[in-house]
Structure formats: C-alpha cells, structure tokens
Amino acid sequence: MSENQGKRKYFRGGVHPHDGKALSAKNSINEAPLFDKYQVVLQQNIGAPPKAIVKKGDVVLKGQMIAESTGFVCTPVHAPTSGVVSGIVEIPGAMGQSVKAIEIASDGEDKWGSSLKPMKDWEQRDDSEIKQRIHDAGIVGMGGAAFPTHVKLSPPENKNIDYLILNGAECEPYLTADHRLMIEDPERILKGALIIANSLNINKIAIGIEKNKPDAIKILKKHSADYGISIVPLRMMYPQGAEKQLIYSVTKRKVPAGGLPMDCGCVVQNVATAAAVYDAVVKGQPLIERVTTITGNSVVNPGNWRLKLGTTALDALKLASGVKNNPAKIIMGGPMMGFAQKSLMVTITKNSSGILLLDKEDTSIYESRQCINCKGCVDVCPMNLTPSVLSKAAVKENFDIAERFNVMDCMECGCCAYVCPSRRPMVQHLRLAKGKILAKRRAQQNK
Amino acid sequence: MNVENIEKEPLVPKENQLMISSSPHVHNGNSVPRIMGLVILALAPAIGAGVYFWGMSALTVLLYCVIFCVAMEASCLSWRFAKTLLAPFVIYGTLCVLTKAIFFIGRFINMGYVSATSKEPIAFIDSLSEMSQNLFTKLFSIPEVVVIIFSLVMIALALTLEIIKDKKDRLANKECSGALIAIKDGSAILTGLLLAMNLAAGTPWWICLVGAFLAIVIGKQVFGGIGNNPFNPALVARVGLFIGFASYLSTWRPTTLMLKTSDSIYNKLFFNNDTVYNSAKTVMDFTTATPLAVAKELADKGADFSPLTTKTAYLNYFLGNMGGCIGETSALALLIGAVILIWFKLIKWEVPVYFVGTVAVVVTLANLFGNKPVTPNALFHILTGGLLLGAIFMATDMVTSPSTKLGCIVFAIGCGLLTSVIRIWGGYPEGVSFSILIMNALVPMINNFTAKKPFGYVNVKAEA
Questions:
Q1: Contact residues, chain B, for A17 at CB < 8 Å
Q2: Which of A259, A280, A282, A266 is nearest to A350 (CA)?
Q3: A1-31+108-363: CATH homologous superfamily?
C-alpha cells in the first residue's frame, strides 16, 4: 500500500448526472432477428481506413473478411451475415459526416464462412499468434474510441506493462450494454481477460465496475475467484470509465499528461472487448455483432439487443417497438459524449454502445450566455483544467492562451458543459481549440 | 388500444425534427438566474437586519437602488443589443452626469467661497455659487415618487419593446438580440441590493441614482455586461460615491434600537454630545459614527480602546446595533448568509475565512509589536465595519475573482492584508472596498500565476 500513500482516494472532479439506467438495466440481452440488408461501415477503427476487398455482386458468407487492413493501426471488417454485396454506398456516419459502407443484402441463411480457426489451446500459443488473431478478427475498443486492440497489446519494447484493467464502469448515463454483458456472460469476459493478459505476459488483472451495478459486481466476484482476477467496485462518478480516471481509481497510478496508459504500466480494455477477444480466439469468430442499448424515455420498449454491425438505427429502433412521442435528439452513445444524429440511417458500428433518444425535457436546449466565472467547471474538470478560461480563449480565437492552459489534455468528457449555469457549449469550444492547435502543430512539423 | 394499432408499423422519429448539437446532451439544470436568486436569498437576512434597525429609511434606499439598477441595465441592454431604446439611456446618463457635474461645480465654488469669506467675498463667485446651489436644490427637490414612477415606466417600456422585437425575430427565424436573456438573469437586482447594502440608511434618491449609474453603466456595461466586468460593480459605485459625495457616504444614522436604550457607550462615543442625544426626537434628527471611525479617532489621540471593546459593545456589534451601512452591521445576519452560500456551493469557504483570518492576524501582530495597542483587537475588526459583508459577498463575487481555488485564496489573503493596512495605518477608517477593488485589478495576474497543473502533470525540467 505504500504506493498509494498520500494520494487522493478518488480522482478529482467529475459529476453525477441522473443515470436513467433503470429503463433498461433489468432487460436481458435480446437476439435481433435477421434484417434484409446491412450497411457495414468501412472504417470502424481509429487510424488508417481499411480497403474493401469485395465488389458489387460478390457472394459473401457470415464472418468472411470484406475489407482488409492497410496499416498497423487498422483492422479488417467482416460480413455480419451471408448474402450478396449490393455495392459500396455512402451512408451518414455517426460523427455527422458521410462515410463509405459495404451494403450486403442478406440471403436469410446466415451461413458461417469464417477463415479463422478456433484456438482451444490458446495458452500454448505464441503471444504474436494471439495478437495476430485479435487483429484478424477486427477487434477494436468497444467502449467508444474504437482504437484497434492489437495495437494496445503491442507496446514498445521499453514500456514495462504489468497491469491489465478491464473497464466495466459504464459511467455514461442510460447505457446498460456492458452491465448486461457482465451479468449474462461473465465467463466470456473473464476468459477474454486471461487471454489478453497472457498475450502481454502479465498476471495482475482487475475489473473496475461502478457501484451502481451491484448485481454485476456480485456475479463477477463469484466467477473471478477461479481466475485470480480482482473486482474493484468504483465510486459512482462520471467519468469513472475514462481511461486515466479508471487507472487512477484502480491502481492509484497517474498517467502522465499527454501520455498513454502504457506510460504507467497499464493496459485498459473494455469488458465487451474482452468478450470479443474470447470469441475470436477460442471460437474463431470475428467481431460482427455487439450488444447495444436502445433506450430513452420516449422509447416504447427500452432494452439491450445483440445487433449485427451494419444494422441501421431505424431497424434497431423498430426492435424496441419505436417511440411513444417524437424525441428531440437521437444520440449514438451516451448523453455525455455521444453524437447527436440527423438521420436514422446511421448504422451500428463496433463502438456503438447505445442508441439514446432524448425528449425535449431531458436534453438541454441551449441559449448560451456570457461566462460568469462561477468556477463550477473548474471544480468538476477531472483533468484538472480551467475550462472557463479555455472556452473564453477559444471563442476569442486566442488559441495560444488555450494551449498554455493545457487545452490539449481535455478529453471532452463534457462535465464542464454539464454544470455550466450559462449553458455554454464548452466542449464545442474546447474541441475547436484542440483542432486548431493540432493543425498548427502539424503545419509546423511539415515545415 | 385496438388490434390495428398494435399491428401497425412502430412509430419512428421524424428526421426533420431532430436537433443536433455538440455533446453533452444533458445538463444539471443550474442557471445564472438560479445562482443570482440564491445569492439574493443569502442576502435576505442582512437586508432584514438593515430594515429592522433603520426601518423605512433603509427600505427606501434598497428600493431606489434596485429600481435604478434594473432601469440602467434595461436601458443599456436594449441600447447595446437592439439599439431600440436610446432615449432612457441618454436621459439617465445625462441626468447622472449633470448631477455629478453640478454637485462638483457647486462644491468647488463653495470651497472657494468659504476660504474667501475670511477676506473679501467675491461677488461673482458668490452669485455663481448661489445659482448653482439653487439649481442643485431645484433639481433634487423633484419628488421621489416621480423618479420612481419614471424608472418603472422606463423598465416596462424597455422590456415591452424588447419582447415585441424578440417575438418578431423569432417569427422571422432571425437571431434574437439576447437583451432579454441578459436582463432576465437578475444580476441587476443583485447589484442593486449590494449597492444599497453599501450605503447608509436615509441616503437621498439621487445618490442612489448616481450609484446605480456608476455600478451598472461604468462598472459593468461599458466592459460588455455580465461576466466581463473586471471590478465589482457595487464596489465601483460605493468607492465612486465615497470619493464624490463623501459626506453622504459617511453620515450614519443611529439605529432605532440605539435611541431606545440609553447605553452610555453611544452617548459618549458615537454621538457627539449628550445634549444632541437628549434633544433628539426621531432617528432622522441626528447622526452617529461607526465604531471604526471612533477607533480611528481614539488611535489618533493615542487614547485607550477599552470603551469600544466591552461585552455589551461586542453583543451590539454582533447583532448589528451600531452605525454603518445598511447591510454591513449585523454580523449574525451576514454569517447566516454565508452558511446559505456555502451550503449551495456558490462560494468557497476558503475565501471569507482567509480574508477575515488575514485581517485578524495582521491586527493582532500590529498590536503585539509596540508599547501599546495601535488599534482595537481582532474581534473588534471582524465584527465592525464592512469586513464580513466584503468577505462574504464582495470578495466571493464570481465574475471578479480568480478562476482557481488557489487563486481565490491568494486573492482573499491580498484583500485581508490591504484591508488591515488601510484600517490601521491608512487615512480611512474603512478599507474593505478599496482592498477588494485593488485585488480585482490583480485578478488576471493571479490567474496566470495560479494556473492549474493538469491531471498527471509531469514537470519536464525535473525529469530532464
């Protein structure tokens, strides 16, 4: 415990929004029926875009690779079901831009055709083989960032990794996908964690879960004893699931500012990612489906569904019996960091943890005022920044000041805007500043 | 529900009615009007105490200040945003400038006149002085009711025109002026209340008017309105008035309680002599001094402070039964306000504690080094004068204090140091308003020096 002496018990700042998880937390994961067509977004990872290897008219089988990776930070994409490729189309992406997607018309047979062989004897396999499999199965961080998992598992030689943390915090309000997965599939998650730890040659594994999921904590504690994995109940506080905050809560280590978790010897994976790793390695199944929460006060039957990648939000919403009244916003992800959508044709991708429909009463309708310097944002910023100063600097286009006050450390968790009495769109301001500063840095590098 | 409805295709949202905005999509419901309302709630005990001690003469000052401040704000905003109502702004502005100008000219000439009387009165200056004095009294003999009604009409007019324009803009899908949002936040009411709390009971209406002009127009709107003012508007007004109209700002009325009790302290120290006290019939008839002013006088004479620091005196100071501004006397009421503010997390407890603590430490140290006390003890300094009002409501003003907690503590300590230095060694008995204004000016610098280190900050120099 000497390591933890003189440190704060909790990470600093954070907010506790109304979590709304009761809407869907008790509803077990439903299997979705087969839809007529799927539009699989080509780039579902951070990094380089993969290249499509099928063309219009090709017949594909479920689990067959339809796009191959083009670089190290890139993952392949697989067909969610068997059928015919009806073309490469432009569809609205979750971030508001239009993206390329491979459209597959389902043949209704859902026939497997994956080239990946199950590795029942994964403990004997070489690390690189496991990592290659994780890459081949197209696994990315399923918590939201969609960072390719095999990259996270391949730290540079000089980094000493000794701790694997599974993220089961699910601190975003409303979302319950990870929660249900932990209750219903604890074995997959735990075995997946073992596989990841094995490939990194480490034995310290912890799963961080927020205390508002006592059932999940109980079930995982029961199962984890056999595996030597510790379950860490975490304080209910958004953003508990943010990487740096989670690492601090579990290990009391601080990721250096501007650094990555591996700089303090940690690797963080989402629980859903761990389950996907288990499927990929032991069952030989690539990542073609995920658990998604469809919820909101105006949804008729909120709940959790196992959806194939490429399912449109419209189809997903019909599974939940549609809406009672017209919602004000449709959000891919949670209410704090998710993206508001302008179209229902947006599709489920590897990082879609939820489709959230917010009523006009739930969502904030902005009429932003002048900052009155109330210091509310300063108190809640988990990165210990001064958002009020940054936001004012960004609005005045004083990006140098924003940089000096460390805007680049902002992770856009939205705590500042959540508490702002003047309802300033702080995250938007800070994103603007970050974008401008990045552009400036890139321009300087190119010189 | 009939069978048909169930079999129907599920209802899905209409795409053209979806809103798009940056995350986060939820909010905790806090708002500027709520903050202002809570601060006003916290001020309520102190306002109540003021009204209890001075009755109608305090209530009218509160009323004037609030109405004038809201009127100034309404005119400024409607002018700034919509350029619809230039008139009230101009009228108010001219009135205020005239008030000040005439008063200053009058006083200047009067001074010349007084110094000249010992020799030969100069006829020209004499007549000019008389003329200005006549003008002065004429201007300010406008019945108060007229001014109040005028102000209310102006507010109503400005708001009505704004509402009409706002609705028109909304219908035409144009961007709204924002004046309505700004006026609805209640900050002008708060500034008005704070201004009134810094004035003496029975202050004439035109002083309140000038004060409102200084606070809202000079102190706030010229910088760009709420959130942009570097100085606390109420204190700008107080100091401006104090320099311009010193006599009005340092003439204190005794509280109604003082007249009922025949406490010897008040007879001997606060009232000039017993005869005035005995002959006085009502509160309006005579004036009193604040304990701090008496202490200053005693200090100048080198006298003992013991009459000021008896048990009865302390009880009176604590409850607020002494000469002073409407809002500053009752320590009890201000402390209740502080509890409300801290409870609702509107201020950090560190600010008042460090402010008051610094004053206490400096006063104690000043008395320790020396043959005899240079000033009454720390408790006296805490309970009397504007220290608690300043520490709880002025130094904690959100807009004009530093952005970080550390910065706020530095700010509070600076205020405390300046206050005690002015009180003990300076020329004024009071130093709170000056010290807070000086520290306000230093806020950008404090912000720079107390910039926060991000989570996981690594000192690059230490590593290298």
A1: 26, 28
A2: A280
A3: NADH-ubiquinone oxidoreductase 51kDa subunit (3.40.50.11540)
**Among all residues of chain B, which has the CA nearest to that of A428?**
B22
The answer, for A252 touching chain B at a CB cutoff of 8 Å, is: no
Instruction: Using CB atoms, pick whichever of A336, A372, A428 lies closest to residue B399.
Output: A372
Distance from CA of A443 to the nearest CA of B (A): 24
| Tokens 């950090």 found at | B348
Q: Indicate if B208 and B312 belong to the same structural domain.
A: no
| Nearest CB to A421 within list B13, B22, B34 | B34
Min Cα separation A289/chain B (Å): 23
Q: What DSSP element (H or E) covers A188?
A: helix A186-200
Structure tokens at B214: 């200084």
Residues 6+ apart with CB under 8 A from A283: A118
Judged by a CB distance cut-off of 8 A, whether residue B457 touches chain A is yes
Cross-strand pairs, A225: none
What residues of chain A lie within 8 A of the CB of B26, using their CB?
17-18, 173, 335-336, 358, 362-364, 418
CA distance A361 to B66: 34
Q: Is residue A292 within 8 Å of residue A353, measured between CB atoms?
A: yes
From B283's Cα to the closest Cα of chain A, the distance in A is 41
The beta-strand segments (E) located in A53-202 are: 59-60, 65-68, 77-78, 83-92, 98-106, 163-168
Mean pLDDT of successive 10-residue stretches along chain B, which has 464 residues: 53 81 87 92 94 86 87 76 55 56 54 43 51 58 64 70 72 63 81 93 83 89 87 93 82 72 53 46 55 81 78 84 86 95 92 95 88 83 91 93 93 95 86 94 92 78 46
Model ipTM value: 0.86
Q: By the CB < 8 Å criterion, does B3 face chain A?
A: no
- Strand A77-78's sheet: what is its strand order? A51-52, A65-68, A77-78
Distance CA A316, CA A301 (A): 11
Residue spans of the domains in chain A: they are: 1-31+108-363, 376-446
Report how far residue B211's alpha carbon sits from residue A340's, in angstroms, rounded to the nearest whole number: 48
Helices B405-425 and B350-368 cross at an angle (nearest 10°) of 30
Same domain? For B200 and B298 the reply is: no
